[in-house]
Design goal:
With 287 residues, the protein is mainly beta. Helices cover 7% and strands 47% of the residues.
């Protein structure tokens, strides 16, 4: 991870002066998410965005292949959400997730604030703070050893806070790094409540309507006793822009569609064929 952020810092320094047009600093990503994690992009003031996202089952491996039609017979997660631009530098959003595993029936919410805006001269990067939470609303399970037994109402909550920094080097390339903290109020005895993580994302545009996205996150302080049970979430995708709509097709080893679930809970391994197809459709409205 030190190498990843070293590369980001180097490119930021070397990239000054690459762009020449004012529109090159106005939009970094096409939406408020890169693939499933947040991007530095915010909605314009009084804009509403409606999002529908799906992830299916394993394409390959023991749970994939033709027997499950390469994952399309299974649904890993689905999210329906509304996001709103309160100010040009402040977004809020709410959503409902199917959830993954025993953490099912999940409400989510977030607030995002842009601290710095990249400009043609003077400011070389975007800097954004985003805070989010989830609340599983389904009845607690009877097994008191389960993390879904929720002895207290507050045990249901999970929180994530992140700082996002990005630089748009040209109309065709954007690089973003994120550093964050995830806190689950109720975990297994061998686990820890708080997890520190960092990641890197990139966007490359081939044309005005077609681009490629990559997103990776690494958890630093997973307890060694359970570390082998988890994987770092890695996703790659294609974006297709059509006026007020944007379509993102992605392949990922994470099942969940919310950072409060896929940061601490990704267990699938790309090398074992445990990766899946997903997509999201965004429609933006000006109110």
């Amino acid at each position: 991870m030190k190498r990843i952020f070293g590369i980001f810092a180097t490119l930021t320094l070397l990239g000054s002066g690459v762009y020449a047009q004012s529109d090159a600093v106005l939009e970094s990503f096409s939406g408020t998410r890169v693939l499933t994690n947040h991007s530095v992009e915010l909605l314009p003031k009084r804009s509403l965005e409606f999002i529908v996202a799906h992830k299916f089952g394993d394409i390959a491996g023991d749970q994939g292949g033709l027997q499950n039609f390469y994952g399309f017979d299974n649904l890993a997660d689905v999210r329906i959400a509304f996001e709103y631009g309160v100010l040009d530098n402040l977004d809020i959003g709410v959503g409902r997730n199917k959830g993954v595993g025993i953490i099912s029936g999940v409400l989510d919410g977030y607030a995002k604030y842009k601290i710095l805006q990249q400009k043609e001269t003077g400011m070389p990067v975007n800097l954004v703070f985003v805070s989010s939470l989830i609340l599983p609303y389904k009845a607690a399970v009877a097994d008191l050893s389960s993390v879904a037994s929720y002895p207290k109402f507050l045990n249901r909550f999970t929180f994530t806070n992140q700082l996002l920094v990005s630089r748009k080097f040209s109309d065709r390339f954007v690089l973003q790094a994120n550093l964050g903290y995830n806190h689950r109020n109720y975990v297994d005895a061998q686990d820890v409540n708080g997890l520190f993580f960092a990641g890197v994302s990139a966007r490359t545009r081939f044309t005005k309507t077609l681009g490629m996205l990559v997103e990776y996150n690494h958890v630093f302080n997973r307890p060694s006793a359970i570390a082998d049970n988890y994987q770092d979430p890695l996703s790659v995708g294609i974006e297709i822009l059509t006026g007020g709509h944007s379509f993102i097709l992605n392949f990922s080893n994470s099942k969940a569609l919310n950072e409060n679930l896929f940061i601490p809970g990704t267990t699938s391994n790309w090398l074992d064929g445990q990766w899946r197809f997903g997509f999201s459709i965004n429609r933006r409205f000006k109110l």
